Amino acid sequence: MRHPAGRHGELRLTFTKRDARTVLSESHSRAPLQVMKPLDDGDGRCVVYLLSPTGGVMGGDRYEIDARVEAGCRALLTTQAATKVYRMTDGDARLRMSVRVEGDAVFEYLPDPTILFADSDYAQEIEVSVADGGKFIGAEIIMPGRLAR
Q1: Per-residue pLDDT reduced to its tens digit, 12-64
Q2: DSSP for residue 5
Q3: How many Å is the Cα radius of gyration of the chain?
């Protein structure tokens, strides 16, 4: 059940090759999802940090992330800190992420841990489409919060 106080965050990213570098050519966000100014790692890879200025994920929250990595690009999406998923007495929270990696592109999705607190109700779905020659590298760390409880 969606809680009326929940937030609906959206993020759309498109990575494009310019000369020998990958750049973030499209960045559309709706709070609470946003990204920092992209960084070039010095090797042509574009590094983007996902930010959420709220204290964490709460009941009723819905997050949608869409990332497209064009042919020949190299990009990394990560977070600036762990994602805290708090107790939910009413409602649940959901994240839906869609990634499209075109030919000869490399996309890394390496977020900091997700911390699930007692009585949280959270689901995430990540759909990845990789064209011939493309690569997706991903890792997810899920941790319990406050073991003493």
Answers
A1: 999 999 999 999 999 999 989 999 999 999 999 999 999 978 889 999 999 99
A2: T
A3: 16
Helical spans, DSSP H, in the chain: none
Q: How many CB atoms lie within 10 A of CB 69?
A: 29
Over 60: is that where the pLDDT of 77 sits? yes
Helix (H, G, I), strand (E, B) or coil at 93: strand
Residue with tokens 């990009």: 75
Cβ–Cβ < 8 Å for 58, 4: no
Q: What is the reported pTM?
A: 0.91
**Beta strand pairing call for 8-18 and 21-30:** antiparallel
| Torsion, CA 17, CA 20, CA 22, CA 26, rounded to 10 | -40
